[in-house]
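Q: Is it fine to ask for two folds in a single conversation?
A: Yes, each is treated on its own. Send the first.
Q: Here.
A: Result:
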Amino acid sequence: MKKVGFTETVLRDANQSQIATRLPFEKFAPILETMDKAGYYSVECWGGATFDSCLRFLDEDPWERLRKIREKMPNTKLQMLLRGQNLLGYKHYPDDVVRKFIQHSVSNGINIIRIFDALNDTRNIRVAMEEAVKCGAEASATISYTTSPVHSIENYVKTVKEMEKLGASSICIKDMAGVMTPQEAFDLVKAIKETVKLPVVVHTHCTAGLAYMTVLKAVEAGADVIDTAISCFSGGTSQPATESLHFALSQMGYDTGLDQSVIKSIKDFFLPIRDEYIESGLLDPIVLTTDSDCLNYQIPGGMLSNLINQLKALNAIDRFNDVLAETPRVRADLGYPPLVTPMSQMVGVQATQNVLNGERYKTVTKEVKAYVRGEYGKAPGKIDKEVAAKILDGEKPIQGRFADTLEPLFEKTKAELGDKARSDEDVLSYIAFPQVAEKFFEKRAEKENRKASYFIERID
């Protein structure tokens, strides 16, 4: 009986896709010991947008969050998503920072690091892959899946061969926008399995309504692990339901390794939390529905939920469909980058500015300008010459791997922060999100001072 492993995403991508990563530790802490008994291949609980969200919105130390999860789940592989040379931020960092970040991710509890580059430029995952392997973690090399005139199975297989040479423990197909069709999944998984002797992981979203069919065909083609979300946080912009695929695959003769009674308990725990977010308005019904138009605009789930929140904040939700229509046009202008972080945010923000300004590329974000310069790597296709000329305004594009031009940063930043940083983890938080981390450090100190004052008053 062939075994198919399940990676549970409710602690990371599922809530990132549906509630913009606003799930605090205290909400899910009581269920962690139960989740540890479910029989998951792994639990994705860190990385992606969780790091930023912890500091910016949840008033949590992301490193402490990881340690507490590890403590309550000693028997399950904990998994994170890492954006290669971008780490968890939106720009490239020097190699010393990348290595240090991975070292501390592993020492704080991570077992599997899913490493991707938004442009599938393997130069940008090399250092992260090397360090993950060196630290004893599983390096899951990841294809950012998309469709365009410049993406093909042949090109993906070529990338996978390069990933194998870098020491990949597995190959993940990351279909962040849910646009991979069942036949495409079957053909791609089959081609990869015929090319390398590594486990294949399939990650997709239900946004376009294809995910259940896509996952089944991927498993038939030989996929070893699939990403799913407990049912009350599944569907829509999230992953397909854990329970549903457990039932389906078990009936088809596959061994999922899951304990049905345990996953039922997990679902019962998260159901009232889901309902609470619906009632508060943070979980918008739009992200729970099927939208076949995403086969055109290819916006990932997390990006979609954030886009809705941002347009609401700008009192411009009525322009939502205009922004969706502009997104694929911007993507084509920029050489068809896969819409995965940070490219999804860059393309989405630029599309929004184009619509709200009433003029295309009237204003351009510094990130888009950096991308056109070549700081994020090699574009999959050709960037439109007129758009590039307007954006660069006479600046020359860079050549080679951008990270090679960056000076070491960790020790320098550590010295500059002094007492503000209590640990190497604090230094890494600051490097990733300077202003946000500094505010978090200040709030943390204030809370501790208030707590100390309270105890002194009690003693007096």
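Q: Second one now.
A: Result:
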Amino acid sequence: MLEEIKRHVMDVAKRAQDEGMCKHKSGNFSQRDPETGYIVVTPSGVDRKDLQVRDMVVMDLDGNVIENPTGLKPTSEAMMHIVIYKERPDVMAVAHTHSMYATTFAVLNKPVPAVVYEMFNLNAKKGRIPVAPYGRPGTKELAESVVDCVHESDGFLLQAHGSVAVDEKDIEGAYLKVSYVEELSELYYHTLSVNGGKEPPVLPAEELQKWSYPKEIHFQKEK
């Protein structure tokens, strides 16, 4: 069931570990199937290098496990994914990582501002990467803590925990966005360090909403 989606989610999970975005079995990933409404999620407590397609878990949005042929449990944070899908019907994939710089600001409970224009990739309505209030991992409180943030931005932090990004298309898009969260956090960190802790100038939210493909570029019409 949903073998193609399973492979995509598995490949991104492996990539996240290889690129250092998730260490020590941390983080989790999911993608929704538009036809059934089911979600494919990564299993709990498996080293990504050992992950196989058949290890992926299929669930519905009521928390029921539909398919887990190897008997593995879905990630303990599956309810957070489910809440996101329910809150944002447009979202088709969720990526949650524990990358270094993003998690540093999550520990500080400090939103990351738009120090560079790449913030526009996150559809951040307030021109920042917000921080969801603390919730113990695997709990209903954690799942519900993300509601405001996922409506504000496609990328956000979990206080004292890590980062999350969502995408309207697929898991590759969600992973790209969570990578932007990490890159923006790293740039902000280094800017603060170079600037002696002084806050840098940032781009206003309204400026981030103005991007469009340059109209001066013209394409020849097919004959």
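Q: Anything structural to flag on that second result?
A: Two points. Residues 134 and 159 are 5 Å apart (CA to CA). Residues 171-194 form the longest helix (24 residues).
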